[in-house]
Design a protein that fits this description.
The chain is α/β, with parallel strands linked by helices and 254 residues long. The protein is built from nine helices and nine strands. Helices cover 34% and strands 21% of the residues. It has a seven-stranded mixed sheet with strand order 1-2-3-5-4-6-7, sandwiched between helices. The longest helix is centred in the middle third of the chain and has 14 residues. The two termini are 36 Å apart. Bound molecules: zinc ion.
Length: 254
């Protein structure tokens, strides 16, 4: 059984984050700190949910924490970008929900681990623009045009927020849960020690079957049954249980 953060440790975290001013608080400087913490029992296990204050984007980022990450080494971490349509509504236009659930399920069974839930809907362009891009695809725009409309996420910004969140949680080193080895560099560049990588393997289900089926035809891209390409909203290409070694290799190349 994993040991969760104690009430006293949570109090301490909240106090030190309250006092932390990110080097003298300068509105130009990024400041990310813990604002609130509560228990979050879920279908994926026992977690704490940690809400963060962010001084620049006004977004309420969150960490879903299992076990005790304080001053710990090699903490498994998954970075997930918010996708309302996938995460909450079960959209089949992407596989965000599969990736999120697989990460929570895996981490919920580990001694400790963290899912960083980054509030960057549609790669940071927001829900409306994401839906505009979907609409363009529905009306025959190809994926490149729709991708341009959707905008590409600024990965660096993700890493900066993620690194700050992990520092606020006093994580010493992490094992990044990702299918893309190159993503490790982004966090390392910001001073986060990444000691390893854990592949995120998604169990097959009726909703991602199509991905496997079409993988052969067009590797690395997600198509729905009508043959239209999906936008990839998460940073990682999914690895679904049952893929061949060759398919996994393709998934791990960005
Ligand atoms: Zn999505």
């Amino acid at each position: 059984m994993s040991e969760a953060m104690t009430h006293m440790q949570i109090r301490e975290l909240l106090d030190e984050n309250c006092e932390n001013s990110c080097k003298g608080y300068n509105p130009q400087e990024l400041c990310v700190k813990i604002a609130a913490i509560a228990d979050l029992p879920s279908r994926f296990g026992q977690f704490h949910i940690v809400a963060f204050y962010h001084n620049q984007d006004g977004k309420e980022h969150a960490a879903i924490v299992h076990g005790n990450p304080l001053d710990a080494e090699d903490v498994p971490v998954r970075m997930h970008s918010e996708c309302l349509t996938g995460d909450a509504l079960g959209s089949l236009r992407c596989d965000c929900r599969d990736q999120l659930e697989a990460a929570l399920r895996a981490i919920g069974q580990m001694e400790r681990g963290i899912v960083l839930y980054l509030r960057q809907e549609g790669r940071g362009i927001g829900l409306t623009n994401k839906i505009r891009a979907y609409g363009l695809q529905d009306h025959g725009y190809d994926t490149v045009e729709a991708n341009l409309a959707l905008g590409f996420r600024d990965d660096e910004r993700d890493y900066t927020i993620a690194a700050h969140m992990l520092q606020s949680l006093r994580v010493r080193s992490i094992q990044l849960m990702t299918n893309n080895p190159r993503k490790i560099d982004g966090l390392t560049a910001l001073g986060m020690r990444v000691t390893g990588r854990i592949p995120l393997i998604i169990p097959p289900n009726p909703y991602n079957e199509f991905y496997l089926e079409t993988k052969e035809r067009k590797s690395g891209h997600m198509l729905d049954l009508s043959g239209k390409e999906h936008l990839l909203e998460q940073m990682d290409r999914p690895i679904i249980d049952g893929m061949t070694a060759e398919q996994i290799e393709v998934a791990q190349e960005d």
